[in-house]
Amino acid sequence: MNEDHSKAVAEILHELSTTSHVQVRSSTELADQVSEAAEDEDEKRSKKGRGPLRRRTDYRAVRTAPRTLTLTPWQVIHAIGLGAASARQGAGRGLAEHWGSLRYSQALEANHGRYLQLSSEGRDLLRFYKATQSGEIGTGFASLLAENVVRSRYPDHSVSVIPADVALKAGWALRGTDSGTGTRPEPLQRRPHFFVEAWQPGQPSKVLLVSSKGTHSSVQQVYKQLSTASAHVESVHIGPYGTVPYLLIGTEIPKKESLALHILEGPGTTVLRPSGEASAADLNLALEQENYPSDVVRPTDSGKTTVPGYQVLPDDFDWFSIVLARTEAATLTAFTGGGIPTAQYLTKDQGRRHFQHDVHAKTAKLRDEEHRIHGIDFVGTDHIYRLNGIRVEAFSGLKKSLYTHLRHGRVNEYRSEVHAMRGQWPDRSTSGQWNAVSIRPDGTVMAIRLQEG
After folding, report:
1. Is 427 among the domain residues?
2. What does the DSSP assignment read for 69-88?
3. Residue 266 is part of which domain span?
4. DSSP letter (8 states) at residue 356
5. Residue of 220, 230, 211 whose CA lies nearest to 252
6. Whole-number CA gyration radius for the chain
7. In total, how many domains does the chain have?
8. What is the rounded CA–CA span in Å between residue 453 and residue 389?
9. Of 265, 251, 247, 267, which is closest to residue 196 (Cα–Cα)?
10. Residue spans of alpha helices (H) in 307-439
11. Residue 442 belongs to some domain of the structure
12. Is the pTM of this model over 0.90?
């Protein structure tokens, strides 16, 4: 029986490494449907005595969107795990939450046309945490699609996807109440999910916002979610009001049909170049915690006014460049094992104290594993768990030389080396004894195999 179970698990791991497709949809019709959903929502709010949501309304179809996204389920799990390792930093559970991505090992499968859909196991999960599943899977697909779109626009740049909440905590308090009101204004409660940074070593970065949603419901729910997402991106402004570009991405996860990604964009280009300067900030500098007011300057017919929100002005572009790079460094080191190497990149408000000791739930040893995969040496942490009763080993790590740079605080050197390797990473989805492998352009790896013995 155990041998039969091993064969069944081996088939699951094979499915994780098999290339599949996801539909990508972007059109003028989609933009119109989202606008109608926004009008309907504001009408309902008006009947309840509430004003309309502040939204970005300049969205349109994405001209460079791919028709399909080609990937393996394991790449999606890699993206979910990387996002969880960073997004949970403030709670000090980064690595343990990251391994929670493995719950999706049996959730996705390809249909006869090799398009991804929920497996029977994935559909069963709906009974337990439907909202969590749609949110986490949606976030994974959104980060991969956003990276794909931005990389196609700036092929000579590297692209980083950075959790917005963790980055914003370096300059603003995201929780608590406003004095005198007891509750925070809605724009302070709604924020984008990611900053996407297109960068070259020594040059000012380009940056845009991403708000992602996911649903198990119909496409009508996607329209509603994207209309809400347009309010999430409105809360953050980089440079003058309403000029930072953005992506709105909704993942439709039907119970039986194939998945679909719906995407819109807000036009523009925002470059983190302070006035009169052409060089980039020194990313090796320690990140200073700031305490900016949660206000945005918005132009009006009679001049300008101040509204609740988060705004980075040109004088702070250097600081924000350091925020993005060092938050990414914290994400990468958290993915490999967290601890002191991660703490050095975070401010107190970002959760530095949670990483000052090498203690994580469910993980006894950190950064103690080295594996050579596709001829590349990686260092990181492994996790042993049971999949249908069979012991399975999963490994998450970072290319050893890149990890050495980040361990010693050398973000400039990390970015120089990883940028030089652009386009050189192997794309094979299996390797030797590893049943499924995913290597990202940031140098991280996630691999899984049946445990020996």
Report:
1. no
2. EEE-HHHHHHHHHHHHHHHT
3. 22-362
4. S
5. 220
6. 22
7. 1
8. 14
9. 247
10. 317-336, 340-343, 400-407, 411-420
11. no
12. yes
